[in-house]
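Dear support,

Our group has been running a series of protein-ligand predictions, and this particular one with nicotinamide-adenine-dinucleotide is the one our PI (initials K.S.) wants archived with full inputs and outputs. We had some confusion internally about which version of the output was final, so please treat the block below as the authoritative record. The input we submitted was:
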Amino acid sequence: MNLLPIFNPATGERLAEVPADDADSIAAKAAAARAAQPAWAAVPLADKLALMRRFRAAVVAERETLARTLSLEVGKPITQARNELNGLLPRIDFFVEKTASTIADEDVFDDGAMRERIGHVPLGVVGNVSAWNYPWFVSCNVILPALLTGNAVLYKPSEYATLTGQHIVRLLHAAGVPADVLAGVVGAGAVGAALVEQQLDGVFFTGSNATGVKIAQAVAARLPKLQLELGGKDPFYVRPDADIQAAAEGLADGAMYNTGQACSSVERIYVHERVHDAFVEHFVATVRGMKLGDPLDDATYIGAITRAPQLAVLQAQVDDARARGAALRCGGRVLPGPGNWFEPTVFTEVNHTMTLMRDESFGPIVGIQKVRGDDEAVALMNDTRYGLTAGVYTRDETAARALLARVNAGTAYWNCCDRVSPRLPWAGWGDSGVGLTLSTHGILTFTRPKAWHLRRA
Ligand code: NAD
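Confirmed final output from the archive:
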């Protein structure tokens, strides 16, 4: 049997070895899920909701152990690992509160003789191939509503968050989900590729654009429902009337939280020339105050880079920006190991010829570009194929909303950033993806509509 080694990215130490799946074991899990799904769909929703409440209680009870596992295998600062688990609870609550009303039959016409009704039925068996950076969020955004709406799920956590994925599966089984209805699948990219080769009714993926495109091509002939939640190059604009200190502190947090390893990390900042220098001063001072170090230390704000190959991507962006004339304001270097470490890095005097301003960094790097006004800012914000989040800092709500209406992004922020709400859809536009999770739309997405034409005899 193949074993998947799990490493601590902060130290390079081997944490565990986990038995990995292969094509045969995945096919067996898919067949078992197919057989088990109809009975699961028939379980009353009230029972499924009770199960989710037990899952929630178990997450609360084991929170510290779960946070520690997450911190050890991903290199996430422990306080941010705890925040992720705390942030999961309102998502569970939302799904528990909203599933019944969202999937209830809707009568949309009745003239006494003819009734028209929309029903919502489960997709069937769905596959979830997931990312490592917020493994509780991105997995549970799929698994929980998929289960509540009556689907069976084959779930492959990222190979960089396997232990967390195993906790998720263990706790849901302990809460009462039958083993065949939720099957964990262990392994790296080849295992993910074997998973999406199964006859699935839905494929729900979170990860990079490059992998998303490969999955879209791989599943095309089978026509499952396909959702891809991909990367971003999220832009922000600071108008001259903004609260500059608040904007600088908020955006520095948005750029560096989770060590910049978030799809919604702030990656590009455009600042009006009148306030540019003051903004940069506050921004750099805030970043310099962020403590990098042992992820298990409560004082740490910048953790490890989870994937070692990303260090070269970050270094190449730094080298390219410097070669093209950008001004390095802080950071800029890979730090010596053991483990994977990159200094929080801020550039000014950047432009869109630089990879730093075009390609997803997925690390603690950000470029700040001076602009002359709203129109230039909007043009630069839209100069990307990505479209996940975008925001404006200003005291003028009307101006912010008018500006953001012109920006191609699924999420718009006014005076805030890097924020996700269970009540709002999380949807990437363009190269940031297809489909959505969260909100009531993110419950319905695990169902297909059935149109009923009911004529009274
Ligand atoms: P990745 O694309 O390298 O891997 C994602 C998953 O795909 C992993 O489970 C991996 O094993 C699997 N995989 C790799 N090759 C595959 C293949 N050929 N077929 C099937 N599965 C395969 O991405 P990552 O490094 O885990 O995550 C980082 C990326 O995810 C970033 O681009 C980030 O922006 C994005 N992300 C997006 C969101 C969102 O909500 N839009 C959330 C989190 C992360």
